[in-house]
Amino acid sequence: MAEEEAPFESLKTFSGLIHRQPLFITDRLDVDSYHLKFLNKEGEKLDDDSEVPAFLEHLPDILPAISDRQKALLSIPESWQDALYKSRESTLKFILDINGDTTTHPSGSNERFAFATHAEAVADSNQSNTLLIDMLQHSPETLTEHLPYWRENHKILCATNVNDLGGYTLCKDNTLDLLQGQFYTLPSAKERLTIPPSIQILMELLVKLQDPEIEPEDLANTINQDVSLSYKLLRLINSAFFGLPREVNSTKQAIVMLGHTKIKTWASLLSLSGVDDKPVELRIVAMTRARMCELLAKYYKGQAEMFFATGLFSTLDALMDRPLDNLVEKLPLSPELKQALLDKSGAAGHALQDVLNYEKGDWIAIDASPIPSEVLSRVYLDAIHWAKELNTQLQD
């Protein structure tokens, strides 16, 4: 196991910041691949002559630790190209964004590599595979105006900075191929006037699971009433992900072994992951936020379980398409947890704000955090690795 983890551990030695975002297939919001940006400590593009990191030659072995897709879009400096070409042969395909450079191409043909360029920098003669269209730079009118030319010269049109639902609708209406941005982490602009029965049942379950007064036996009964939940919980607890020394045969036994609080949290996570009218990636965001908050608990001198719950419940609004304050008020959460979620106050709230800032790539805010950016970067990588492994277990 240690040998398998070594390549991923080397990624955490990178001296700058690493940011990962999903690229969605527009018409069905499945993840096509992930975009990895390698930035300096200030969150800016690396210089074209940046030193080549030792991990680069191992990237084909590293990427499966944070992505289950067979291709990746990489934003890297020009100086890293040769090392990447010489990396181990694998089935992974790389789309290279060389700091927006539209002219640098590998010598000879290599099916592993394709190129991406930026719409703002495209020359007439350029015919790169993927075109990155920054939606902050284009109005609906300019988008419509340029689309015919872009389609003629590029196989894949990918919109970036799609950070609201209006931007998503615009991209969908114009049938762009891929989307990247924060739009999917937001609740629908149209608040549901009536709560669907499935969501009502889920909220009732969450209320019971979060009840601070619930006894272990009642907790076990609550979970067991949902046959699917109890099955998923026992299957997960008995998986390699937990690595327990002996098999757990009942929910009650799981509570005894792992503790009251942990089972409540894991059952809540599994319940939320069952919301089926949302992109699977939103579930991964919930898990990543939860884990990153949990890992930051020691730096903020807080309780790990409470920090985990803060990250997990921060996605409730997007999962249920209702305002977060409306949802939180219906749950019997501690005052500290409610304040963390609604005001980003207290230690857990500050950790959540760090997590949200990193997720959005708000590097100015990250620089202002009391936690050093290199710590946040390592914790982020650990969290997305953990969420990827957990999601693999949930899909099996």
Could you name the key traits of this structure?
TIM Barrel; alpha/beta; 18 helices; disordered N terminus; 396 residues; 8-stranded mixed β-barrel; 48% helix; Hypothetical protein af1432; globular; 12% strand; 2 domains
What does this structure look like?
This protein is an alpha/beta fold. It has two domains: 183 residues, EAL domain (TIM Barrel, Alpha-Beta Barrel), CATH 3.20.20.450; 199 residues, Hypothetical protein af1432. Helices cover 48% and strands 12% of the residues. It has 18 helices and eight strands. The protein has an eight-stranded mixed beta barrel. Helix 6 packs antiparallel against helix 10, helix 9 crosses helix 10 and helix 10 runs parallel beside helix 12. The longest helix is centred in the last third of the chain and has 23 residues. The radius of gyration is 22 Å and the shape is globular.
